[in-house]
Design goal:
heterodimer, A: about 270 residues, Uridine Diphospho-n-acetylenolpyruvylglucosamine Reductase, domain 2, Uridine Diphospho-n-acetylenolpyruvylglucosamine Reductase, domain 3, Enolase-like, domain 1, five-stranded antiparallel beta sheet, four-stranded antiparallel beta sheet, globular, B: alpha+beta, Ubiquitin-like (UB roll), DNA polymerase, domain 1, about 30% helix
Chain lengths: ~270, ~140
């Protein structure tokens, strides 16, 4: 049964400061493109009752490079990413991910801040951000702070973000090395990942996985093994020890572990 | 809430979190837009908002204030895509058809078959197996 909307309260923010004031007054869930939130509403599982609509805040849009850092506004959509020459130049693996998120209808509305804030372990943009050492810019009426995405999540769908904070931007420093992304789901479009991985083959290799733990995982031990010249089959064993996926509706622990190992091999051979 | 619906200035008195789909079908009585899955997977409820295809089951009414919304009714009854879908049997049960046509509207005239597949990747059809739909779109573009 769909959530009855008559009991829901929506405030519409006209600027970032406006939104931050509303969030400081009382707990409200921000609504951006609503592609996750309205799924919950349609299924009757939407828990929050008070919302702030941030979709109209144009200051949260735009993709820019400042001081050699790629800065993407919170409301950057997947379509914005796919069309951005700056992202194509600096973070092409994010374009690969964006093309495989939903279909055009979802790409036109889904935002990167929404993908991060929603906190799904299967979020496809998040392993990319993790492998790229991206930073989440959080702002409240009191302060602004920058949290590396690898330190953002604390547990399943839980993060360090406070109730009065809003994600205002994602910052990605220059990525050194060849970028790689691969999503494994039941079909190419409109599928939720069983395993999703992003990697960077550079002086210090980086490898991040989604859908194999309660939060995104950076495989640091595996990365260290690769960095020190360990043969790939040894690194695969390290990865096997490093991750502990689970069974759920979309896949099994055994399948996920095996696919994660294959993805590591693919990453290594395809970026050679 | 004021917006433009199929070129006509519209003012709807509804909860700002109403789904655009429900507003279009119930308040505005335009039932060409269909509800399929209600989770953004099937694309049956596709409409254009400021020219971009979106799933109207996932759009709060508040977010279309001042926007241009186009539904399948906005095409009239004589659009080349509508004829091509009929002539090529691109529709069987018909539930996905309005969404397929709305998604196909965004294609460039010189779109390839691969472009068509990408443009329609957010629309599911359980009857046709898609090839008749792709054929209809290819034919409509040549007219």
């Amino acid at each position: 049964m769909r959530t009855a909307i008559s009991g829901l309260d929506l405030h519409r923010a006209t600027s970032v400061d406006d939104a931050l004031r509303m969030l400081a007054e009382e707990a409200r869930t921000p609504i951006a493109g609503a592609t996750d939130l309205y799924v919950a509403l349609n299924f009757g599982t939407l828990a929050p009752r008070r919302f702030v609509d941030i979709w109209g805040i144009d200051d949260l849009r735009g993709i820019d490079v400042r001081d050699d850092v790629l800065v993407m506004g919170a409301l950057t959509t997947y379509t914005d990413i796919i069309r951005s020459p700056l992202v194509a130049e600096r973070l092409p693996m994010l374009i690969d991910a964006a093309r495989q998120i939903g279909g055009p209808q979802i790409q036109n509305r889904g935002t990167i801040a929404g993908n991060i804030a929603n906190g799904s372990p299967a979020a496809d943009s998040v392993p990319v951000f993790a492998a790229a050492d991206a930073v989440v810019v959080l702002r409240s009426i009191r302060q602004e702070r920058r949290i590396p995405i690898t330190q953002f999540y604390t547990a399943y769908r839980a993060s360090v973000m406070r109730a009065d904070e809003l994600i205002v931007a994602i910052e990605v420093p220059r990525v050194e090395g060849k970028q790689w992304f691969r999503k494994v789901g039941t079909r190419a479009a409109q599928a939720i990942s069983k395993v999703v991985a992003a990697g960077v083959r550079g002086p210090s290799p980086k490898f991040a996985l989604g859908s194999i733990a309660p939060t995104v995982v950076r495989a640091y031990a595996t990365e260290r093994a690769l960095a020190s010249g360990t043969p790939i089959e040894q690194a695969v064993l390290t990865l096997q020890r490093e991750i502990a996926p689970i069974d759920d509706v979309r896949s099994t622990a055994t399948y996920r572990a095996q696919v994660a190992q294959r993805l590591l091999r693919r990453f290594w051979s395809e970026t050679n | 809430m004021r917006f433009t619906l199929n070129g006509v200035a519209t003012n709807v008195d509804a909860h700002p979190m109403s789904r655009l789909l429900d507003v279009v079908r119930e308040e505005c009585q335009l039932t060409g837009t269909k509800e399929g899955c209600g989770e953004g997977e099937c694309g049956a409820c596709t409409v254009l908002v400021d020219g971009d295809p979106v799933c109207s089951c996932l759009v709060p009414l508040a977010q279309v204030e001042g926007a241009e919304v186009v539904t399948i009714e906005g095409l009239g009854d004589d659009h080349p895509l509508q004829h091509a879908f009929m002539n090529e049997v691109g529709a069987q049960c018909g539930i996905c058809t309005p969404g397929m046509i709305m998604a196909a509207l965004s294609l460039d005239p010189d779109a390839s078959i691969d472009d068509i597949k990408v443009a329609l990747s957010g629309n599911l059809c359980r009857c046709t197996g898609y090839s008749a739909i792709y054929r209809a779109i290819m034919k409509a573009r040549r007219q």
